[in-house]
Specification:
alpha+beta; 18 helices; globular
């Protein structure tokens, strides 16, 4: 179905106030728009990389005729054109009339704010936690508080009073953000224009945001130089740092066909605009090890905005999802005006930032085939910090084990070369070998012959070699702990 009309502006509300954004302003990072156009300076910009969380805001989207829940995200790296039909709440919008919100009051009462610069982002993150717990009728625990704050760094090392603030939030005093800001009148306004395609031009800039996949394919054929954006969690950083500029853009985050999540006997389908948060929750039952990896993948703010397809197509040698997907024999599904094709992830990466991807192609999703009952998985990420840190080495093993024998193995490593790599020679050494500590130690020692990592700020070559070897042993230990029949 063709879009009903075209428009040249983004419609959104900020703290309940409607904004229509067009021209160059639509290309600004949301944080800059909030501070300098909307005159809401409570949202701070520190790192401009999505790392520190000072710029955290809360966003609900009018999506497929319903509102999503409010989620936190980093406004410093996300352009305004990604927020059409969104309700945004900043730290200024949390207070009710002249009274602070319950979260703000507890941060004040327990001295959670010190210098105060990072405090607005922390208040927004804890408000997201309070809103979620209130909506789901669950309590706030220390674990939940820590998880929700992994994307917020405190420069004054004041985490204890911040956690005390979180643990003492009285949810009976919390008014849900949906009650305050998702009004019927706003819903009706957004519904009327939800089928519009968007085409905004600024000074030497243009952005297209269609709602139909076929229109996106046609635009990519007509303008192959358009850079595809869905979450911008990586591209937004590069833009801010001047590596390149997001001036000619095709936005995919309004196309319903690309948001599908499906589980079939054949495998799992993850649409290309599926957020990392939704992916983590989706695979929790059928791929619990993959879901566990995603829990330390990034901050809630990044996972709420970023996509699995974006992580795969970015192709970083330290992309956390890629080793696991390689050993799961995942496939990349692509579409263009010429038709559809499927590329095994094992052959998708040609060299550093070089892919089996044509200029006119759009990724429609990632497919993960179903594993048989005899298969088991282990995925590791090694970094200096547990949360919100770039990996030094990543490891993935998917093994078929029967009667204490390894029948088949798939092994991948990241952080040790220009791309994430599968290790077919080591996989052969596993095949037919006993499931034993000696087998894993022996294969681990051989890995030094097949990789030649670099030394950089995150780790030396020798460190990476040692870690890679030790991860094979760690894989055995954890699999052994999980197996009742382990020798």
């Amino acid at each position: 179905m063709a879009p009903s009309s075209k428009r040249k502006q983004i419609h959104l509300t900020i703290n309940g106030v409607e904004h229509k954004v067009h021209g160059d302003e639509a290309f600004l990072p949301l944080a800059q728009f909030l501070r300098y156009q909307a005159h809401l300076p409570g949202t701070k910009v520190v790192c401009a990389e999505g790392d520190c969380g000072a710029c955290t805001v809360l966003v609900a989207r009018w999506n497929e005729n319903q509102w999503t829940s409010f989620q936190t995200l980093n406004s410093c790296i996300a352009p305004v054109y990604l927020f059409d039909l969104c309700s945004i709440v900043t730290v200024e919008g949390l207070a009710m009339e002249d009274e602070l919100s319950e979260v703000q009051n507890k941060m004040r009462e327990f001295h959670g704010g010190q210098c105060g610069y990072c405090t607005p982002g922390m208040v927004c993150s804890l408000s997201g936690l309070a809103d979620s717990c209130s909506q789901n009728n669950t309590s706030i625990t220390e674990k939940k508080a820590r998880n929700h704050l992994t994307g917020n760094l405190c420069r004054c090392t004041g985490y204890e009073p911040i956690l005390n603030s979180a643990m003492n939030i009285d949810l009976k005093k919390w008014t849900p953000l949906a009650t305050r800001y998702l009004k019927k009148s706003q819903q009706e306004t957004f519904q009327k224009i939800s089928a519009d395609t968007i085409h905004i031009e600024g000074s030497q800039k243009k952005v297209f945001s269609p709602v139909e996949l076929q229109e996106a394919i046609s635009l990519k054929e007509q303008y192959p130089q358009l850079r595809i954006v869905s979450g911008a969690t990586d591209l937004g950083v590069l833009h801010n740092k001047g590596k390149f500029f997001l001036d000619h853009v095709l936005v995919l985050n309004r196309i319903a066909d690309l948001a599908k999540l499906e589980s079939t006997p054949q495998g799992l389908w993850i649409g290309s605009r599926t957020s990392l948060t939704d992916f983590e929750n989706f695979v929790e039952k059928e791929q619990p090890e993959l879901s566990r990896l995603m829990r330390i993948f990034a901050s809630p703010q990044i996972k709420n905005q970023g996509t699995l397809a974006g992580n795969v197509l970015n192709g970083s040698p330290i992309g956390d999802s890629i080793p696991a997907l390689l050993t799961l024999n995942a496939e990349v599904h692509l579409r263009s005006a010429k038709g559809a094709r499927t590329v095994p992830l094992t052959s998708f990466y040609k060299a550093y930032k070089s892919f089996d991807l044509q200029p006119d192609e759009i990724c429609t999703g990632i497919f993960i085939p179903t594993l048989g009952k005899s298969w088991t998985t282990k995925f590791f990420k090694v970094s200096l910090r547990k949360d919100l840190d770039i990996s030094a080495v990543t490891f993935a093993a998917t093994l078929k084990i029967e009667n204490q024998k390894i029948l088949e193995a798939r092994v991948a490593l990241g952080g040790i070369g220009p791309t994430v790599i599968r290790l077919p020679d080591l996989e052969k050494d596993f095949a037919g070998a006993p499931f034993s500590e000696d087998t894993f130690k022996s294969v681990g020692k051989k890995v030094r012959s097949f990789i030649k990592p670099i030394s950089d700020l995150r780790a030396s070559e020798e460190y990476r070699l040692t870690v890679a070897e030790n991860l094979f042993h760690k894989c055995y230990i954890e699999l052994c702990q999980e197996s009742a029949s382990c020798p």
